[in-house]
Specification:
The chain has helices spanning 3-17, 22-29, 33-40, 48-57, 62-69, 78-87, 90-105, 132-144; strands at residues 113-118, 121-126. The protein has 145 residues and is mostly helical. Strand 1 (113-118) and strand 2 form a beta hairpin.
Length: 145
């Protein structure tokens, strides 16, 4: 086995484990403590099921995790990103949403915010840039309300 792959696995396992003890991490993954220890010491590779568990702990797809271990990168597609979001832990997803909200809030050329009144309630919406025909249709529909 390639020594670099085992070293990347060891580092990735330690990062995924974080502040948990090897025993706690092993229980979380439903493996023995000696199994975790062998991964962290670069002595053994996990089976496919455990590779997937480790990948999910890192917020990755198993394919991307294996590519990382072998130091190969793939170009990201929107499907790849959506797949990653699908397996992302809720805490990490919430962090992504906060980063996105901050980015939208500080965008230099962000679209203007418009207010729409509904029975003593003011709603703020971001105005969408639509082609002229769609814009006219939207205005017509809003006029019917």
């Amino acid at each position: 086995m390639d020594e670099k792959v085992l070293q990347r696995l060891a580092t990735a396992t330690q990062e995924a484990r974080g502040n948990l003890s090897q025993r706690e991490f092993a229980q979380l993954l439903d493996v023995s403590q000696s199994t975790v220890q062998s991964w962290e010491n670069g002595k053994n590779l996990p089976n496919l099921e455990n590779l997937e568990k480790l990948a999910r702990m890192r917020g990755m797809l198993v394919e991307d995790f294996v590519a990382f271990l072998y130091d190969r990168t793939r170009g990201l597609t929107s499907k790849d990103i959506l797949d990653r979001i699908e397996v992302m832990p809720s805490k990490d997803f919430a962090q992504v949403l906060r980063v996105m909200a901050d980015r939208l809030d500080t965008a230099k050329n962000s679209p203007p915010v418009v207010e729409k009144r509904k029975k003593d309630k003011v709603e703020q919406r971001v105005k969408l840039e639509l082609p002229l025909r769609q814009e006219q249709e939207l205005q017509r529909l809003e006029g019917e309300e």
